[in-house]
Amino acid sequence: MVRVMACWGTLMALFMGELAIATTGFGPGICAVAVLMGLVIVFGFMRITLAPPLAAIFALGSLFWLAILLSLGSLDSFTRTNFSVGDTLSSRTQNAVTARDRAP
């Protein structure tokens, strides 16, 4: 139980550090804290060093699969093209209507 509470306390301290870094806007620091949180979970809660080799293989495989899912999920926002729709289209429509209304 002491190990679990120590891991939880470490995660809470890292969370407070992450909040402090977030107020400064330092992006790489937030990523570093997130990696440290992941390492605390893997080595503290999961105790992957004491697990059988097959468990370590599955842990690495799940990280690889998570990387694939995150990269495919981010492709949508990276490759999306925004077309500006606004005044140009609406002004053409309004001009066409007013020109038609003026005709005898």
Q: Gist?
A:
This protein is mainly alpha-helical and 104 residues long. 82% of the residues lie in helices and 0% in strands. Helix 1 packs antiparallel against helix 2.
Structural write-up:
The chain is mostly helical and 104 residues long. The chain folds into 2 domains: 1-50; 54-81. It contains 4 helices and no strands. The longest helix is centred in the middle third of the chain and has 27 residues, at 53-79. Keywords: Membrane, Transmembrane, Transmembrane helix. The chain crosses the membrane at residues 32-50, 57-75.
Distance between the termini: 89 Å
Helix content: over 70%
Give the CA-based shape: flat
- Low-pLDDT parts are none
Q: How many β-strands, per DSSP?
A: 0
Largest sheet: none
**Structural class by secondary-structure content:** mainly alpha
Mean pLDDT: 84
- Alpha plus pi helix count: 4
Strand residues, percent: under 5%
Radius of gyration, CA atoms, in whole angstroms: 27 Å
Q: Total domains, how many?
A: 2
Helix-strand pattern, N to C? HHHH
Transmembrane segments: 32-50, 57-75
Keywords: Membrane, Transmembrane, Transmembrane helix
Which keywords apply here?
mainly alpha, 0% strand, 4 helices
Layout of secondary structure:
Layout: H1 2-24, H2 27-45, H3 53-79, H4 87-102
